[in-house]
Amino acid sequence: MFCSGCGKEIPEGSKFCPECGKATNGTPNVTNTVSDSDSTKTLMAILAYILFFIPLLTGAHKTSDFVKYHTNQGTVLFLATLIFSIALSIITAIFTTILIAIGAWGLLKTIGTILGLLWLAPLALCILGIVNVVKNQTKPLPVIGKFTIIK
After folding, report:
1. Which pLDDT does position 22 carry in this prediction?
2. Which of 29, 48, 121, 132 could bridge to 71 as Cys pair (CB 3.0-4.6 Å)?
3. Are 34 and 45 in contact (CB under 8 A)?
4. Could you give the CA distance from residue 114 to residue 96 in angstroms, rounded to a whole number?
5. CA dihedral 83, 89, 94, 99 (to 10 degrees)
6. Phi, psi at residue 82, to the nearest 5°?
7. Dist. CA 118–CA 125, nearest whole Å
């Protein structure tokens, strides 16, 4: 049985939810389905990887450790992607200038393709984060997952 207030599981016969303290009064306030609260937390955690600022603006990161964890991961991913973007732009400009100067057009196309494919890394991390949310896991993202910005 689950609390209709917070969505946490309640032991049979409990008069109050051990998580939020809401009275159960038998069964009227209790439901056997996933609560709106759980689906909202899942949605906010997913949004943290797509638009990291939504859980921050709504304050959802303050209502659940699960949402806070994924909001942190999404924010770190955004910042890492921003730094990655700047670095990749600089590297691309340097290679392009050098390869045009020496007339290596074939090599320019090859390196351009490789540098373009590097954009799959942030996308893969975003997808991995969303998969972790759907699986209800708080698993850190590879490489960047150990950083904490939101406490």
Report:
1. 74
2. 48
3. no
4. 13
5. 140
6. -65, -45
7. 12
Determine the longest span between alpha carbons in the chain, in angstroms. 81
Measured between alpha carbons, how far is 80 from 69 in angstroms, rounded to an integer? 16
Pull the structure tokens for residue 39. 């689906």
Name the β-bridge partners of 31: 2
Residue 25: predicted pLDDT: 62
In the chain, domain spans? 1-33, 46-151
Q: What angle do CA 139, 129, 43 make, to 5 degrees?
A: 110
Please tell me the pTM assigned to this model: 0.69
Reference 47, options 77, 17, 6; nearest CA is: 77
Sequence-distant contacts of 57-61: CB under 8 A, at least 24 apart: 61/150
